């Protein structure tokens, strides 16, 4: 089943989307918003699935689905917690600044609490005050959970996964060092994130979903040029059930909690840092990683961060080449004070 | 106007509470939940105020108000961001572990993103796995805002303050060092927070509210013994408009955003660290600060963290001694796996 929230009010209008992303039908008469569906999933899911089947059969009224009409599936949520499951990425970033990564990072997940009150739509611009802030994208996978009790086991966590989405975890790189040095984590350096037009139930991923990871390449394109295609199922040190259980260690998680994978990153075949796509590699899911590899290889970063007018596109395709979630596609635009 | 959310469903049932906290009347027919009221404040506020006036006059049906029936005013919210506005507190904690505090901490607010999907009610137990986690309370003030545009000025931020509440920002002190060392801020070390039974519009504070701070003592009691009474209007380096503008620097804030002050803390009259109430001082708003002062004075902390069965009470009274927000009162209880 594929679900989307068309832009309307603060929480969007829930629609069911056809598997091929061409058509949609209103789910309003079942439940008006995705958050409300998640609040009462056990009761609502069978009815939404019935409707999805009718949509596939063409037996309900439907309309043309346009990705640019979408808000994020949850236009705002009660929790957005982002892991760093691709530890390879973390190790690289540290290496570039000459810092050892503690051994515990391979066993104890890194996770930060993100802002969840003002997500961007998948085609909304990334608005930034200055290019000097080091504007970057981060292509990630995330899952949306049901209620998770405090102290949940890995298995309980796995059973609470309801939906899968893509994320652009926008980052302002040049604000990060000073902010992290203060010791309280990210805040201004992580502006609003954007999510894919469509959220899908795990069964839509077929055998690309093993209950914990998504085994497909995550495609990032910068200004229409392929930038990354690492496989999200490879080098993911902590799978989603592990990340969820980590988040629920000392408190319960509310329905609609979004847990992110962190930037998807694959090592090179030889075990070293990944190569750019132009050099025959799988590329990267953020500019910072490419810059890090450049720093390690050449002593300095050569790729600039995003500039006003740059566009990033993030997408995932099934084995037949069909888009699963629709595409996040965002242009960086200069902030102008509302008057 | 005083507002409360009685326990019901995920978001509570909005009621108006009388100024003296003895009676309440349903606001359901105007708007069912506080979040929905905040989503449409301009339209809803005048109608809620009319109802509050009728309640004071006894001209609407009302019922006895019991604080133990309350959820937190927002039982879950889209954002909970907590500042550390009482820099005195931060400096002390650093001093105890022999670390200098950077000068910039006096001009650049510390703030962390907290979990907001599963707040505790004001009389709910604090459930913890082990006393060894170092269970502590933190008595704070917080404001709840309307929408705040990205890049808001201090004045715009001030105008977006809708409600004031008290908070118990529960902390697991012994998990903090390892978690902060990972660099991504608090996560497991900050379990669910609890808020006062009642949220009030700033005008309810009369001249104790100057538009940015609350000039009244914040009363903390541990096992029925007075523990702290620092004045929340004193030594608050960053007032609420400054904290809100900080949070809104790189992204907008959604209606219902909760911004906390951090642990309220006053210096001693002589400018040194505060003294315990037993020694004629104003005491503290968390155990960690008392332990910090003990460490500075005696070389070691003497006061233990909270144990199972301990109860903390947090309250604020007006100049006539009447409770403004009702009381947070929470017992620490051992976690037991749900079966």
**Biggest interface between chains:** A-B, 54 and 54 residues
Q: How much is the average pLDDT of chain A?
A: 96
**CATH architecture designation of the largest domain in chain A:** Alpha-Beta Complex
Strand order of the largest sheet of chain A: 6-5-16-9-10-12
What class do helices, strands and sheet pairing of chain A give?
alpha+beta
Low-confidence stretches of chain A: none
Proportion of residues in β-strands of chain A: 15-25%
* Biggest beta sheet attributes of chain A: 6 strands, mixed
Radius of gyration of chain A: 19 Å
Helical stretch count of chain A?
A: 7
Q: End-to-end span of chain A in angstroms? A: 42 Å
Look at the structure and give the CATH class of the largest domain in chain A: Alpha Beta
Element string of chain A (H = helix, E = strand)? EEEHHEEHEEEEHEEHEEEEHEHEE
Shape verdict of chain A: globular
What oligomeric state do these chains adopt?
Answer: homodimer
Number of domains of chain A: 2
Helical fraction of chain A equals: 10-25%
In words, what does this structure look like?
- The structure is a homodimer of 339-residue chains.
- Chain A is an alpha+beta fold and 339 residues long.
- Chain A is 19% helix and 22% strand.
- In chain A, the strands form four sheets. In chain A, strands 6-5-16-9-10-12 form a six-stranded mixed β-sheet. The first copy, chain A, has a five-stranded antiparallel β-sheet with strand order 4-3-2-1-13.
- In chain A, strand 2 (13-17) and strand 3 form a beta hairpin.
- In chain A, helix 3 (87-96) crosses helix 7.
- Chains A and B meet through strand 6 of A and strand 6 of B.
